[in-house]
Known about the structure:
The protein is mainly α. It is 77% helix and 0% strand.
Amino acid sequence: MSDAAAQRRATLVGLxxxxxxxxxALLTTATGNLPPFQVLAIxxxxxAFLGLVRATLRGAAxxxxxxxxxxxxxxxxxxxxxxxxxxxxxxxxAPAVEANLLNYMWPLLIVVFAGLLGxxxxxxxxxxxxxxxxxxxxxxxxxxxxxxxxxxxxxxYLAALGAALIWSLYSVLNRRYADVPTAAIxxxxxxxxxxxxxxxxxxxxxxxxxxxxxVVLLLMGIGPVGAAFWLWDHGTKHGDIALLGSLSYLAPxxxxxxxxxxxxxxxxxxxxxxxxxxxxxxxxxxxxxRAPR
Length: 293
């Protein structure tokens, strides 16, 4: 397989992860009264368990794939924990659609950081794309009513923006460890489960999940907080990172549709405007990155 074909295939693998993440907001809101860190610990515990089962079935080769340099392990563990902790908090403390779309500024930031951290000068089109993303963010949190943000929702909005920053940085920095097997993400998932459990025990009251909530947690562990990270790890290491950043805007579009269709969020015309601005910003950023110098 040629290098170009391998890159296209890795980009498609990353796209599948994006599609899986479209279900994360809906599944998170479906956990109902479960505390954020408890959801984090259980979801990633399931993902880690499945990864360890795979390693066991593969024997010695499977366990060797889990080995990785300490910096690579630290990056994946802290990024996965920090991102999801903030994301779950955002969905619990702010309106689901607004928090979800604010979180999805990370695709735009990926494009910008790919240029900044990759030693490539950020072009005017990329800065314009970032500006459109900021305008979309303001529209989301104010609903076009000026800068009077609902005070009770501010922690959720800040958590969503923090999650976006962490995930975009991780996605770009992860390319530095392209030689680390994708299966090694299992160890990171286990680390996130442990950190989530510690944070839960220190700051939250345990709630026993209902049968329905266990089903939701299992689906999360298999899909958007399980297989999706394997796919994204491969995509960001070997695919077209700028194109993945642009394609990532499929996730908030599908995610918002799922939230509205399920009745867990109300449709509002501002959301459509914000999505359009985010898409325009992503398009400008990717177009600028591909333009000849």
